[in-house]
Amino acid sequence: MTRAKKTLATIALMLGVTAAAASPALADNGMPVAPPDNGMPVAPLDNGMPVAPPDNPMP
Predict the structure, then answer these.
(1) How far are the Cα atoms of 13, 26, 29, 48, 57 from residue 23, in angstroms, in the given order?
(2) pTM summary value
């Protein structure tokens, strides 16, 4: 390898290592974000009947 190729390879390697080391710091505070609170999850029922009666049941 010529001296120019060695220098270019060294610079490319240093840039790659620097980018890999800095990427967590570039993230939004480096911490995962919790999903938004969209209410209580509900599982589907087999027969379509509600789990509890409605608040104002009709007679």
Answers:
(1) 15, 5, 11, 49, 57
(2) 0.42
What is the widest separation between alpha-carbon atoms in the chain?
A: 92
Report CA torsion sign: 23, 24, 28, 34. positive
Give the tokens for residue 31: 């911490």
Q: What is the pLDDT of residue 22?
A: 79
Q: Which two tokens stand for residue 42?
A: 């509900």
Here the tokens at position 47 are 């027969």
Assigned token pair, 20 = 């890999």
Average pLDDT for consecutive 10-residue bins of the chain (59 residues)? 92 91 69 66 64 65
Q: Cα–Cα distance between 12 and 18 in angstroms, integer?
A: 10
